[in-house]
Inverse folding.
């Protein structure tokens, strides 16, 4: 199972699209798909390895501040559950960053800058969402991935047909200024 996780992590890193050359609609979809893949991978790794796994904004071996998700993400075993990678905690996967100017935000119930999965596959009471915002803040290009406390995800949809997706409460999403 560890070999499968290692291969999946490698493929996830390689398969991440070049956000520099994609048109805006495709970039938005690719960013959310990358978030879906990262959440799914982290959840599966926690279950298969029977160990807490954390997904944080980061590069290679280090977690970054909470609003640095656009620079990339790190998935690692986190047995001490402190939300940051310490020496000896194995990195399971590292994801590439977004195009310059685009942003990805994580907001959760427990107001943490990271997302932790427990060995049963649940989050650590961190239901929340990832919000992708394009450089220009155009709400028609913004996307949202909703994560529930059981670790399941769903992509927010445009239910009223106005071109802007709605959050879990049915409100149109908006990018921070």
């Amino acid at each position: 199972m560890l070999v499968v996780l290692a291969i999946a992590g490698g493929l996830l890193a390689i398969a991440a699209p070049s956000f520099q050359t994609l048109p805006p609609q495709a970039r938005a979809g690719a960013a959310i798909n990358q978030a879906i893949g990262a959440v799914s991978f982290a959840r599966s790794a926690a279950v298969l390895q029977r160990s807490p796994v954390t997904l944080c904004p980061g590069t290679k071996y280090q977690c970054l501040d909470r609003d640095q998700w656009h620079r990339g993400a790190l998935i690692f075993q986190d047995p001490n559950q402190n939300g940051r990678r310490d020496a000896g905690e194995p990195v399971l996967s590292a994801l590439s960053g977004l195009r310059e100017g685009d942003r990805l935000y994580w907001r959760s119930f427990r107001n943490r800058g990271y997302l932790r999965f427990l060995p049963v596959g649940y989050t650590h009471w961190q239901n929340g969402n990832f919000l992708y915002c394009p450089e220009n803040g155009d709400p028609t290009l913004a996307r949202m991935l909703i994560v529930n406390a059981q670790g399941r995800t769903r992509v927010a949809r445009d239910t009223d047909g106005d071109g802007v997706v709605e959050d879990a409460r049915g409100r149109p999403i908006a990018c921070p200024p």
User: Anything to note?
Assistant: The chain has one domain: 2-155. The domain at 2-155 is CATH 3.55.40.10 (minor pseudopilin epsh fold).
